[in-house]
Amino acid sequence: MIYGIISYLRSLLFLGFFVTGLFVAYVEILSKVYMEELSLLYLMLSLSSILITVVYIKYWEYILLPYSINLHSQFSHNTLIEIRNKRTLFLDFFILKNNLKSKNSLEEIYTKGLKRFELEYANLVSIDLDMYRNNREKILHYLGIFKDFEVSINPKKNKSVVLTFYKLPIYYEMDYSLFKKDSIFLGIYEKGFYYRDIDTLDHHLIVGESGGGKSNLMQLFNINFLFNLNRFNKMYMIDLKGGVELKRYENVDNIEFVSNIERLDILLDSVLQELESTQKFMLENNIRKLDKFRLLIFDEIGAVSVYPDKKIRESIFNKLSLIAMQGRASGILLFLFGQKIDSTILPTAITNNIQSRILLKTSNDNNINIIDLKDNIRERISTKEIQDFTKGRAIIKNGLTSDKNLLQTPFITDNLLNNILKIHSKDL
Fold first, then answer.
1. Which H helix or E strand runs over 373?
2. For 220-277, how does the pLDDT look when each residue is reduced to its tens digit (9 = 90+)?
3. What's the CA gap between 260 and 255, in Å, rounded?
């Protein structure tokens, strides 16, 4: 409280000096008599005092936040010998609050419960970004929004920081209106709709325990692909554990369903041949970028690692390693889904070449490691523990930009999926 009062009095003093300076300039420029214009000075000082008071009343809790949580920078004195070992504290100060609005009317409908706002703080010396990130929970507790809100913390220049507070929806259904040509819709995040441009797509690794929404997310990817079917030459949907999730797509043009591991081994040979011929074609014709892709969508990649025939296991993983290393440039993309990922399930030669990653609810440290979050509080995206994520809540890492975001994926209803499959059925 005392720091807030001191800050208020200091602001009054600074503004008083500023107003007085303006008054002096006004008198000198217009050659006025000071005593005759004192009433104007009193009016200006009164109005500025009222303005400062209103601002402090309106934003009191935000102004006090750095003082209450002790967010500050330390400056070491290195010039004079007698004070060399002393350190001066520079407390951060509040700049502004900004309420964030949706970009368009459609986004406004779906992000109505998002409730986003920003707080900006600055420091005379520099901002200690790690201090803010290490105190995420304290900040949310102080503001009384710990249960509902998340906060992302990012630098703004070198002496200020922006705290973006947002509340993601827990549940919403996917709708036709959310599809977009040449883009993949993946959910809602702090800035609104999360889309991935098809031209920037790369290999994806999606990991999450049972009940976290992994199968639902796989269907989300698939119906996005179907909506943009003109951008994909071929899709291979691979399910070695019975075909429960992917068999329904086998009656769609340009989709081949694979449920047998021996058949998969043969299929990967043809994919590698296609990769080689595409590389040759691009080289001969000086083509650097392809407009269409081939996709390998693999439900539960861990099924390969437990297959008893070692020769077939190694053959498949060796081929997937080549695709992971060379496929992106040739328009062949991997989408690997699994409940658990480590070196015993998926060779590092594959995982190291898959940069885009999505992590859903999990308590497994190896899973958490795939998105570079374990024991790294600076990179933590959510104040919630990952094992406590609700269904569909995910952390996504963009392989192109390395940005990490928290998002809520939509629920795919049977009605939506069946309608889309009906549209693309070979029987029509």
1. none
2. 999 999 999 999 999 999 998 877 789 899 889 889 999 999 999 999 999 999 999 9
3. 16
Q: What is the 3-state secondary structure (H, E, C) of 127-159?
A: CCHHHHHHCHHHHHHHHCCCCCCEEEEEEECCC
H or E segment and range at residue 309: none
State residue 133's pLDDT score.
Answer: 86
Cα radius of gyration (the chain): 29
Strands (E) across 167-309 are located at 183-189, 192-197, 204-207, 232-239, 255-258, 293-299
Q: Give the count of beta carbons closer than 10 Å to the beta carbon of residue 331.
A: 20
d(CA 404, CA 424): 34
**Max CA distance (Å), the chain:** 100
- Cβ neighbour number for residue 324 with a 10 Å cutoff: 23
User: Which residue in this structure is represented by tokens 């010039």?
Assistant: 79
Q: How far apart are CA 74 and CA 412, in angstroms?
A: 51
Taking alpha carbons only, the member of 184, 185, 192 closest to residue 113 is 192
Upper half-sphere CA count for residue 378 (Cβ side, 13 Å): 6
Question: Which domains does the chain possess?
Answer: 2-58 (no CATH), 70-166 (no CATH), 176-423 (3.40.50.300)
pLDDT tens digits for range 108-145:
777 776 778 999 998 887 788 888 888 888 999 999 98
- Comparing C-alpha atoms, which of 332, 391, 392, 399 is closest to residue 370? 399
The residue type of 50 is I
Do the Cβ atoms of 10 and 63 come closer than 8 Å? no
Q: Share the mean pLDDT of the chain.
A: 86
Cα 375 to Cα 179: distance, rounded to the nearest angstrom: 36
Cβ–Cβ < 8 Å for 355, 205: no
pTM of the model: 0.85
Distance between CA atoms of residues 142 and 122, nearest Å: 19
Distance CA 172, CA 180 (A): 18
